[in-house]
From TrEMBL:
It comes from Thermomonas beijingensis. It catalyses: NAD(+) + NADPH + H(+)(in) = NADH + NADP(+) + H(+)(out). InterPro entries: Ala_DH/PNT_CS2 (IPR008143), AlaDH/PNT_N (IPR007886), AlaDH/PNT_NAD(H)-bd (IPR007698), NAD(P)-bd_dom_sf (IPR036291). Its EC number is 7.1.1.1. This is proton-translocating NAD(P)(+) transhydrogenase. It is an enzyme of class 7 (translocase). The keyword NADP applies. Pfam families: AlaDh_PNT_C, AlaDh_PNT_N.
Length: 367
């Protein structure tokens, strides 16, 4: 009997992405799966029901009720989880430990959950890395928001009315989102700098046309991770950053740590020292923000400085974000499918390290 894959409409406020694109739907059907979708699952990303039907999907209002495998972007509500059959495999950005009710529902329903944010950051997992693919879209959109809010042009312009100097843009954090932000700001013509506590990011920042902001404090640690700064080092870093921000027009903050509150990097005093008309866009707003003044989901003004804390930026580019997310999900799900059936190879670290709870639920046999 074919594996039944079910996908329901996303219910989180403002969520426009979908975990299944027509492209990946076609691949699942080709792999022998029966794909059932709730009508309208792709509307927010401009994928029509007809596009799914054309590649073999079936419409079903209760698409996940009898599914063996359920795909999602945001975690389903506890009531929706309770409606899944025992042993259902759930794949998506689930964050089970962030919500006690969700965690309890997953365990009570006997769901085998694969929160993709738990995937190890290895070369083999890159094609399944939803954090990276969605961060790229978020970094891109954050710079466009900054350009819209700024009362200045980004590029240098020579006009009959005189020369306009380019905006000075600082990107804080050189992960995937930060590097995409640097590239986007550079394409818009700004004078771009990148700051990260890891000195090894210098080469990446400079390869995109940005200038590495060296504050003279290195947090280089083992394995590519930053070490904890001493109190003296942190104070020196903050003082030098505060002085530098006085000449910056736009700051885009991207420093986030999955599963933990975002580090506070831009203090209220730093914002107060910035020029009137300056802009701070805090991509880390969902986890508290890198800026002390960030109010998640709001744009405020403080002493002439605009501070924006947009949420779910990846959803603003829903079509391409969905295409990338769906490919990530399909690549992971491919590890679970063998000869037209669900198969769990617990010797595969990508499965073993991402499954939640770590102890496999009853009814699922290890390979």
């Amino acid at each position: 009997m074919a594996v039944i894959v079910g996908v329901a409409r996303e219910t989180a406020t403002g969520e426009r992405r979908v975990a299944l694109s027509p492209e990946t739907c076609k691949k699942l059907v080709a792999a022998g799966c029966a794909v059932r979708i709730q009508p309208g699952i792709g509307a927010g990303a401009y994928f029509t029901d007809a596009a799914y039907i054309d590649v073999g999907a079936q419409l079903a209002e209760d698409a996940t009720a009898a599914a063996d495998l359920v795909l999602c972007v945001q975690p389903p509500e506890p009531a929706a989880i309770a409606g899944l059959k025992h042993g259902t495999v759930l794949v998506g950005s689930l964050h089970p430990q962030a919500d006690a009710a969700r965690s309890a529902a997953l365990q009570s329903a006997g769901v085998v959950a694969f929160p993709l944010e738990r995937l190890p950051r290895t070369t083999r997992a890159q094609a399944m890395d939803v954090l990276s693919s969605q961060a790229g879209m978020a970094g891109y959109k954050a710079v466009l928001i900054a350009a819209q809010l700024a009362p200045r042009f980004f590029p240098m312009l020579t006009t009959a009315a005189g020369t306009i100097r380019p905006s000075k843009v600082l990107i804080v954090g050189a992960g995937v989102a930060g590097l995409q932000a640097i590239a986007t700001a550079k394409r818009l013509g700004a004078a771009v700098e990148g700051f990260d506590v890891r000195p090894e990011t210098r080469e990446q920042i400079e390869s995109l046309g940005g200038k590495f902001l060296d504050l003279g404090v290195s947090a280089a640690g083992e394995g590519g991770y930053a070490r904890q700064l001493t109190d003296e080092e942190r104070a020196l870093q903050q003082q030098r950053l505060a002085d530098h921000l006085k000449g910056i027009d736009v700051v885009v903050c991207t420093a986030a740590v999955p599963g933990r509150p975002a580090p506070k990097i831009i203090t209220e005093a730093m914002v107060a020292g910035m020029k009137p008309g300056s802009v701070v866009v805090d991509l880390a707003a969902e986890t508290g923000g890198n800026c002390a003044l960030t109010q998640p989901g709001q744009t405020i003004e403080s002493a002439g400085v605009t501070v924006a804390g947009p949420l779910n930026l990846a959803s603003m580019g829903a079509q391409h974000a969905s295409e990338m997310y769906a490919r990530n999900v399909f690549n992971f799900v491919s590890l679970l499918l063998k000869d037209g059936a669900l198969h769990f190879d617990w010797g595969d670290e990508l499965l073993a390290r991402s499954v939640w709870p770590e102890r496999v639920e009853a009814g699922v046999t290890k390979a």
